[in-house]
Amino acid sequence: MQINLARISSFFALLIAFSCSPKATFRIIDKPITWNAEREQLSLQYLKDRHGLAKTTPSIEPQMVVVHWTAIDNIEVTFDVFNPPTLGGRADLTGASNLNVSSQFLIDRDGTIFRLLPDTTFARHVIGLNYLAIGIENIGSDAMPLTKAQLIANEKLIRHLKRKYSIDYVIGHHEYQNFQTTELWKETDPDYRTVKSDPGDKFMNQLRKKLSDLNLKPVPQL
After folding, report:
1. CA–CA separation, 189 vs 65, rounded Å?
2. What confidence tens digit (pLDDT) does each residue in 199-215 have?
3. Which residues contact 12 (CB under 8 A, 6 or more apart)?
4. What are phi and psi of 59, to 5 degrees?
5. Counting beta carbons within 10 angstroms of the beta carbon of residue 122, is it exposed (0 to 12), middle (13 to 18) or buried (19 or more)?
6. Closest listed residue to residue 147, CA positions, set 195, 108, 191
7. Around Cβ 176, how many Cβ atoms within 10 Å?
8. What is the mean pLDDT of residues 74-82?
9. Who's near 164: CB < 8 A, 6+ residues apart?
10. Does the predicted model carry a pTM greater than 0.85?
11. What separation in angstroms does the CA of 169 have from each of 134, 184, 217?
């Protein structure tokens, strides 16, 4: 039996090159939070009371991605916060609805992407815009800036979502109030607002630079 050493050498060279490639495979890991009759009903009620939309299913037609940070330093605690259908201990939010906050996606410090809800299932994560916005939460805070791995993961996830849906805007949570004077804004209470700093201009500028070829619409100026 004749062994072709040149072919074997080429095979192993390709195998090593592939295994050492800096481009990680894009994956979304499903880690669903509780979705039951109570959460569904609260979501429908939120759509009606806060957004003025009477719907039979709590779904969205995505036009926007909103990038957040959690202000919680690990994935499991964040999951436990989002998992219950009802919200507790947040007087600034429970006055508007007892529906718990959540997002469709959650990204860990190492860039691992978790899907908490189906892409087009309603989630409460941004005042005035939930009905058309997919939320991406990132483990981080003012004291724990988002990582390079999270930046890359956000870019890959947003490109994936852009291929599936008519996404016009990618915004930071801290920019949401800029939409108050646009036709997209739907919040029935003119006084219901919260001040946000996440994820900050630095991260959003880096992310927008990576996404510049998508020709997304700019955030409106107040």
Report:
1. 23
2. 999 999 999 999 999 99
3. none
4. -120, 165
5. buried
6. 108
7. 22
8. 97
9. 119
10. yes
11. 10, 11, 5
Residues 198, 93 contacting (CB under 8 angstroms): no
C-beta separation of 163 from 112 below 8 A:
no
Written as six digits, the tokens of 94 are: 């429970």
Helix (H) or strand (E) holding 169: strand 169-172
- For 210, the token pair is 């990576």
Here the tokens at position 213 are 């070829």
7: Cβ contacts below 8 Å, ≥ 6 apart: none
Tokens (6 digits) for 212: 């510049």
16-21 own/partner pairs: CB under 8 Å, 24+ apart: none
Segment 85-97 mean pLDDT: 82
**Residue that has been written with the tokens 């005042």 in this structure:** 127
40, 124 Cβ separation under 8 angstroms: no
**Based on C-alpha coordinates, what's the Rg of the chain?**
20
The C-alpha angle 66, 71, 76, rounded to 5 degrees, equals 95
Q: Which residue has the tokens 């495979």?
A: 25
Helices (H), the chain: 5-19, 37-49, 75-82, 91-94, 148-164, 201-210
Q: Supply 214's token pair.
A: 């998508």
Which residue in the block uniquely carries the two structure tokens 């979705």?
35
Backbone angles phi, psi at 113, to 5 degrees: -105, 125
Q: How many helices (H) and strands (E) does the chain have?
A: 6, 6
Q: What does the pLDDT read at residue 11? A: 44
